[in-house]
Amino acid sequence: MINLEWFRTFKVIYEVGTLSAAAKDLFISQPGVSLHLSSLESFAGHRLFDRDTRKMVATERGTMLYNFIIDHMNKLEEAEHIFRRKSKAEKPTVSVAMSMEIFQHVLESNITDLPFNLVTRFGDCPQMLQDLNNGTLDLILTTLKGTQHNLDYKPFKTERIILICGNQTDTSEFAELLSQDNRPALRDWLNDQIWYTTAYDMEYLKNFWSASFGALPSFRPKYVVPSFASILRCMSNNKGFAVVPDFLCGKELAEKGIKLAWEGSPPVENTLYFAKRKNTAYPDEIKYLEDILNKNWPVGMEKLSLVD
């Protein structure tokens, strides 16, 4: 199925002559413009422009297509402007992406008060960066910085990855091995325990294990559940271990349904970044979201003693 945005992008390229100028007019990245054009050319089965070092020159097919769609595109754009003039309550729509846990813990309770429309997605960092670069997202919260030149990154928070366990877990032997810093014995003991992890991301466990023991985990978790929130509910007042970001479990640790088993040595930390396009069309709305996330971020985990 053809995407009408391809025609809009094609029209602007034809009129301004370069991909960079088209990207500026459309408020999307230059790779996003290239993607729209290549998709349209694949659909049409013909090259629509000859690529020159200074300017995109329309081919015969490109000129024919432009002449065929220009009246229709102008009418659609006119209808868009008319609709906007008639809509007194029109609000911009901002598309954001972040982890499900951050949305649930920090943003979810505030969305009904937003003065604009919001579309939220969940996904892994590489896909979020690609969608941001292509113009389908406006703001993401990511631990990964890409190499795209048109994206702007601002450090937000630092999360520490910690080892927790249910409060019914017998950790006396673990505490003794930890006091001796006997890493091989610690690793073997932990291998034999009940483990929880999430269905979509084992990177936290892998990174923690690699930093602590210089290898990837060799065990298979007994319970694979949908989210970190599920892990905390399942482990509370029960047995088992999991590796989670510290900001997600401060409340559960304070209520003593779970225990802090180990903060890791060396500690494993991730920097969270706000990422947006440098030529974003929604600077005020994005600033509004950043302020909400900063204001409502969970208070840092208080210094708690390790398990006894």
UniProtKB/TrEMBL annotation:
Pfam families: HTH_1, LysR_substrate. Gene3D superfamilies: Periplasmic binding protein-like II, Winged helix-like DNA-binding domain superfamily/Winged helix DNA-binding domain. Residues 2-59 form the HTH lysR-type domain. InterPro entries: LysR_HTH_N, LysR_subst-bd, WH-like_DNA-bd_sf, WH_DNA-bd_sf. GO terms for molecular function: DNA-binding transcription factor activity; transcription cis-regulatory region binding. Keywords: DNA-binding, Transcription, Transcription regulation. Belongs to the LysR transcriptional regulatory family. This is LysR family transcriptional regulator. It comes from Pedobacter miscanthi.
